[in-house]
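> @MW can you paste both from yesterday?
MW: sure, first one:
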Amino acid sequence: MFTPQGPTLRELAVQALSSVERGYDLLAPKFDHTPFRTPDLLLDPVARALRELGPYETGLDLCCGTGAGLGVLREVCAGRAVGVDFSAGMLEVARAGGPAASYVRGDALALPFGPVFDLVVSFGAFGHFVPGQYPDLFGQVRQVLRPGGQFAFPLPAPPRPGSRGYWAMLGFDGVMRVRNAVWRPPFVMYYRPFRLGDVHRELGRAGFDVALRALPELGERPDGSPRCRLVVATRRS
């Protein structure tokens, strides 16, 4: 996809007609050659912001994929860094070429850890959860954080209504909803529902205090607001 090393159109079609887990298992060997891999352009500002918020000892990358976000944890955590993902194929690629870390296969809605982490991060995974799952997802994150630990993730500003990005996102979500209405198993990947207001409210209900930090390296919108913020949710004791 977009590069000679990326997946072919046929491979993407097979992935799209699979379950989420099976689809990512199939895509894993070529995932880092697609636009879906979180770019360093985003990872570097997040690492800078977290260095200012730290120090941290232990960190977890939730839905780590092939391990791009684990590089951030290795920068900001003095101790153990762990990646968790439910795709065995993605974890295999991460182990082979990712940062030095521990890799665990697990479900984000049933995390196999106690309260042992000071920091949880996640990059680009929230489209795989529908709004009704946010309480369980955020509850699981709270469960694995020590009191005072932080859950941090970048959240881009939504595209302006009528813009090219707005129509692209609306069209993608529409195609996915039609696909899931007529084909099984479902492939959950919706970009529009993960909105700041809803996320802020559900994090508060889950036992977090929420703060926002602009990521100025990623620029501003025409109205002067940040193009991307870092959501920092601190677990209450």
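MW: second:
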Amino acid sequence: MPLLSSLARIAIRSIPGLLPALVLAGSLANPARAGDTAEAEIYGFSSHGDFFAFEQYGTQDGSGFPYSEIFVLDVIGDTWVKPSPFRRLDEVDETNGYDEEQVLNETRERNQEAAGSLLQDKGIFGKGKTVAFNPPTELTANPYKMVVAPRLPLVSGETSIELTLTEYPLKNSECAGYDVNTKGFRLTMVNNGVTRTLNDDTSVPDSRRCPFAYRIERFFTYYPDQAPPVFAILIQMESLGFEGPDRRYLAITGRL
């Protein structure tokens, strides 16, 4: 049984050194072709809201190998807590066939064991709630805007929170060589009449693997008893994949 099987699911992946091989697949950034979409498991916040953790996992397009990535973040600094992220990709011998679900579960269990000490040290206990969810299958939703009640029941004087994402062209020289028009994004939050810029890209990190689309996917909040409330936002990103666009996640955290 997975170490953290009682917590809800999420996913993220980055496979260094894969891009040259991807070019052989042809027009890889065409959204009409199949890629792979990571699943996500939210491990939640620590008891005081100082740390947040999640996992992204799935089966890699092209190779069919199972992968798992676990991220632990310093909420206020909005940075990874070392030695996070924990990334695992297991090669599978397909000679006699295999049970895809079983090998993925085994990969996740091994990665959860690797991350277990850090998760325990930072006190990740599944605190917090999902207050908004906008999957790509929800075709009527606006991928660039969320207006959210931060908790229920609303406390007197509290207002809704508005998130707005804006994409813009942002060139990456390596990705341009693969004929991918990469993009960055700006994310703003309006809370109690105050507008904050949570992200404003000036370059495209290599870890995003040639991204060309973003959407606001999930919004989490947590109201500790003896600390200020905190949030985590998952941004779903489409990037260069082997058989088509791959969907992965970015997390942005902070205090409300």
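> thanks! The longest strand covers residues 211-222.
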